[in-house]
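lol ok so funny story. i was supposed to be doing the assay writeup but got distracted and ended up predicting the structure for this chain instead. priorities right. anyway since i did it might as well share w the group, maybe its usefull for someone
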Amino acid sequence: MKIGNVELPREAVLLAPMEDVTDPAFRLMCKRFGADMVYTEFVSADALIRSVTKTEQKLRISDEERPVAIQIYGRDVATMVEAARIVEQARPDVLDLNFGCPVKRVAGKGAGAGMLQNIPLMLEITRAVVDAVQVPVTVKTRLGWDESHKVIVDLAEQLQDCGIQGLTIHGRTRAQMYTGEADWTLIGEVKNNPRMHIPIIGNGDVTTAERARECFDRYGVDGIMIGRASFGRPWVFKEVKHYLTTGELLPPLSAQWRLDVLRQQVEDSVRLLDERRGILHVRRHLAASPLFKGIPNFRDTRIAMLRAETKEELYRIFETLPLESMG
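and the output, tada:
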């Protein structure tokens, strides 16, 4: 698969852009476990052109994580163009336009998936950004606004005509948010449209190695993107890549090995931020990790783990966990 001059393997596996999740430490960890390309947290174009420090910090990327994409979102042409030019100076391998975020504070203001209610403006922004920068431009979006407006098949052609060099499709509408099952049939229809010649990446409910294989085989996509399944489980990339390469499931990773990975996640997060903010940041991963499923009477321990404010507190709790009961 090729996005502009970025060469990716056949059947590429990508880490999705996720707010408060895909910081540099987590991106690098997923990269080491086999992610073929990683994405930053999404970046507000409005905040970027106002030089908001926290937003500017999201542009920090390292050579170790390449190829890496920076994703921006906004709701007007001039702001998105100016933001794209700022992003280009950070030297990402790809610039991605977010037309898929469904959360109210983004979509409700007309940005992200809100653009699915204003296709002409979405296309105008896309054309303007493509013309403004030299870095390859891609788009991430959804099937449509709601069940009655699944526009992705025609929209994909229109976006391609704007000059984008790759398209990621989440198999839900904005109305679905993250509920229900992702519908990959229209993703497959886009991929199999003879007019489409850019890479098509599918996203939504890829949680296992077997499902990854099925998505490639059944829908013909060029790549898959893994999002929420990586929470507290960055080794999912190791499992998926092994299965895609060998056709065999990776032998079970020991509970101690996986716990050590989560411990390293804590260390990396604290080093990147500071102890208080780093632990707050990693709580989402600890809360979602499948590693702790199966532990009997885990509720009180889970609450204590999510209330811990220092590494030492967390690690003391880790030491009490029954490895033999872990999922």
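The CA atoms of residues 199 and 246 lie 24 Å apart. Residues 2-246 form a domain with the TIM Barrel fold (CATH 3.20.20.70).
back to the writeup now i swear
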